[in-house]
Every structure is written in C-alpha cells, then in structure tokens.
Amino acid sequence: MLEIENLAVEVEGKTILENINLRVNKGELHAIMGPNGSGKSTLAYAIAGKGGYVIRNGKILLDGEDLTRLEPEERALKGIFLGFQEPPPLPGVKLSTLIVAALNKRRGVKDLTKLSSMRDYKAILEGLEKVGLSKSYALREANVGFSGGEKKRAEILQAMLLDPKIVILDEPDSGLDVEGVAKIAEIIGELRGEGKGLLVITHYARIFKHIKPDKVSILVNGKIVAKGGGELAYKVDDEGYKSFS
Ligand SMILES: Nc1ncnc2c1ncn2[C@@H]1O[C@H](COP(=O)(O)OP(=O)(O)OP(=O)(O)O)[C@@H](O)[C@H]1O
Ligand SMILES: [Mg+2]
Fold it and tell me: Global pTM?
C-alpha cells in the first residue's frame, strides 16, 4: 500500500537520499537499518512531508494515490503516522489534548479544542496502561520532561489510537528498558495484525528478537544497498555494515 518510487531527497541543497525504492504492504513489518547519518530519519520525514525535505525526484504513493506534493497534515489525514526519533516537547499541550485534537481532525470536527468524549478519554487511559505509563501522563504536557523511554511510549500510544494505515517509527526502541522493548514489539505485532503497514527504523536487532520483520532494507550513504528477509537484521547485528558499503 505504501510505495516509494525512485525517491531522491535534498536538504539545504544537499542530496541526502537517491534512488530509493521500497514498498510496505498491508500487515507487513518492513525494517530500515543503516549507520548514523545514512538518511533513515530523512526518509521518514520525506514520507511524512516535513518542511525542508525537498523531493527532487520520484513519488510517494499510498494505496495508489500520489502524496508527494501534499502537506504533512494532509498526509496524516490520509493515514501516514510518524513517530519521531526525538519527539518534540509541546509546552502547554496536554498529551490527551494532543491525541483528542488529532482524533477530532480525522473525524472532521472543526473545533479541535472541543473536549474529548468519555470514550476517547477511556481509550487514552487504557492505551497508557498498555504502553506502561501511568494515567497521570494524560494530563501532562506532551513530551515535556518525559524521559527518553517515556517519549517513545507516548509515540506508540498515538500510533495505536490514531488508527493510521502506515506507521513509521524512527528508532522506537531507543532509550527503552528491556521490558519496554518487549512491550513496543508486542504493540508493533498487534498493529501488524490489524493490517497496518509498519516501517520501523532501528540500529539494532534487539526489538526483532521479539518480532521478526517481514522485510529488511539496508540504507548506507543515502542508498538502499541490500534488501532481504528478517534474517538480514540479525546479520547486521552480528557483522555491522562493513559488507554493504
Ligand atoms: N538540515 C540539514 N542540513 C544539512 N544536513 C542535514 C540536514 N538534515 C540532515 N542532514 C544530513 O543528512 C544526513 C542524513 O541524516 P539522517 O538524520 O537522515 O540520518 P540517520 O540515518 O537518521 O542517522 P541516525 O542513525 O544518527 O539517526 C546526515 O549526514 C545529516 O547530517
Ligand atoms: Mg535518525
């Protein structure tokens, strides 16, 4: 359902990604691995439509619809969700307000500050429990003073509640403790089971000890240099990227 065709991306006039082709099908977990600075986050931002990430060539298609020129909000409404490598703090915006605003936007509600329904609030509280955060986080300012692992848990909570078609997670395991990694892997498995397509960026295969990816693409220096099945992730964990560059 998500198709990236021959994508080239430029940031500040510098080409970061070239000739990227990849596909994430419904109910599929596609892992992207690669060294620091290889362009993984750039790929995630380009798909989500972040400003400053200029698509110089190629296309991004979701269920055959061309998203390449759409604004980030429009892409989100069409079903693209990005969990950031470093989720930004949002002073003054409660986590629950952020989630309800996003839900209401999807539903076409005009006044996004409209109070949540009991149903939304209940879903948020249940979700918090599931990701291992206490209920009090619903009323905390989103990501303000959250620890690294707490931010990651809050991101996956949003991925669960917003019901996107494609979930892109940029290093969802970074900063997480052992139980946190297992939990995130379990939730990724559930999202996959619901038929969502997952694009998961990571450095280490530790998350894949719990859940095996269907496909793995290796990104080095802005290009995909290898593609394979789940076993490729374990090979990288053992041998690094030397054999791919
Ligand atoms: N605004 C910018 N100006 C100049 N260079 C940039 C900018 N944004 C990204 N880059 C460069 O693009 C390259 C790819 O960065 P990116 O963040 O996509 O890497 P990454 O694979 O996600 O790395 P990491 O594993 O460290 O998160 C890096 O060399 C980075 O310095
Ligand atoms: Mg990155």
Answer: 0.95
Q: Which of 20, 33, 40 to mutate to test the pocket of ligand 1 (most atoms within 8 A of CB)?
A: 40
C-alpha of 171 from chain center: 8
Q: State pLDDT tens for residues 100-110.
A: 989 988 888 77
Ligand 1 pocket check for 13: Cβ under 6 Å: no
Q: How many CB atoms lie within 10 A of CB 13?
A: 6
Residue 10's pLDDT is 97
pLDDT of residue 63: 97
CB 95 within 8 A of CB 142: yes
Domains and CATH numbers, the chain: 2-87+165-244 (3.40.50.300), 88-145 (no CATH)
Ligand with minimal distance to 222 CA: 1
Residue linked to tokens 């005009």: 110
